[in-house]
Write a structure and sequence with these properties.
With 210 residues, the chain is of the alpha/beta class. The chain folds into 2 domains: 2-124, Response regulator (Rossmann fold), CATH 3.40.50.2300; 137-204, Winged helix-like DNA-binding domain superfamily/Winged helix DNA-binding domain (Arc Repressor Mutant, subunit A), CATH 1.10.10. It has helices at residues 7-19, 31-41, 57-65, 82-90, 103-114, 124-137, 150-160, 165-172, 176-190, 195-204, and strands spanning 2-3, 27-28, 45-48, 72-77, 95-98, 119-120. A 6-stranded parallel β-sheet has the order 2-1-3-4-5-6, sandwiched between helices. The longest helix has 15 residues, at 176-190. The protein starts with a strand and ends in a 6-residue tail after the last helix.
C-alpha cells in the first residue's frame, strides 16, 4: 500500500512496485484514509510519506502498528533530518528511505522490509543505532531488566538479526505458533509493543551480534 499526498509521486511508486511484481492493494493521499483502508486491505508493507495534509506520518505509523496483524512500514520521505528519522522509528517504522534514492535502492528496501529486515538509507542506519546505544548508556547500571528464559533470549536474538518468524521456526525446529508465543511473551515481559521496539531492545543489549 502506498501513502503519499502527491498524486504523480504516488502513482509512480505504485507503478514501480507493480512492474517489480508486487500487488499494490491500495493507494492513499491522506493519513486517516490510510488507516481505514489498511484495516480493510491488510497490506503486508506500507510505503509511507511523513508529510500528509491531515495527519502526521508519525501518527499514521503508530496507528498502523496497532493493526492486527501490523504491516511493516517503510517511510519514504524527502527529509533526511535526524529528528524525523528517529521519530518515525519510535512510532514503529521498520525502515526509512529518502526520496532521492534510486529505483533499484527503493525496490531493494521494499524487498528487505517485506522480509522483516530493518532498512535505512545509507548514513541513517548508523544514526539510528547510535541513538539507541546512547539511550542504552543512560540506563542505570545493573538494570538487567525482566528475566527471559533461554528460549525467549534465543528467539529474541534471531528477531534482532532480521529473521522472520517462519525462518526462526525452521532454525529452531519449532512451530510458527510457538515462535509467535515466545515473541508475545517477551513483548509482555519487557512491556514493549511491537517487533521494532523488540529489535531496539536487543540492539541495546548487544544481542544482534553473533
Amino acid at each position: 500500500m502506498v501513502v503519499d499526498d502527491h498524486p504523480m509521486w504516488r502513482d509512480s511508486v505504485a507503478r514501480d512496485l507493480g512492474e517489480a511484481g508486487y500487488d499494490v492493494v491500495a493507494t492513499c493521499g491522506e493519513g486517516r484514509q490510510a488507516l481505514r483502508v489498511a484495516a480493510a486491505a491488510r497490506p503486508d508493507v506500507v510505503i509511507l510519506d511523513l508529510r500528509l495534509p491531515d495527519l502526521p506520518g508519525v501518527e499514521v505509523a503508530k496507528g498502523l502498528a496497532a493493526c492486527e496483524p501490523p504491516p511493516r512500514v517503510l517511510v519514504l520521505s524527502a527529509s533526511g533530518e535526524q529528528e524525523d528519522v528517529l521519530e518515525a522509528v519510535k512510532a514503529g517504522a521498520s525502515g526509512y528511505l529518502v526520496k532521492s534514492a534510486s529505483r533499484e535502492e527503493f525496490l531493494d528496501a521494499v524487498r528487505r522490509t517485506a522480509g522483516g529486515e530493518p532498512v535505512f538509507t545509507p548514513g541513517l542506519a548508523g544514526l539510528v543505532l547510535g541513538e539507541y546505544r546512547r539511550l542504552a548508556a543512560q540506563e542505570p547500571a545493573g538494570d538487567a531488566g525482566p528475566r527471559l528464559t533461554d528460549r525467549e533470549t534465543e528467539v529474541l536474538r534471531l528477531v534482532a538479526k532480521g529473521l522472520s518468524y517462519k525462518q526462526i521456526a525452521e532454525r529452531l525446529v519449532l512451530s510458527h505458533r510457538t515462535v509467535q508465543n515466545h515473541v508475545q511473551n517477551t513483548l509482555n515481559k519487557l512491556q514493549l509493543h511491537n517487533r521494532v521496539e523488540l529489535v531496539r531492545y536487543a540492539i541495546e543489549r548487544g544481542l544482534d551480534g553473533e
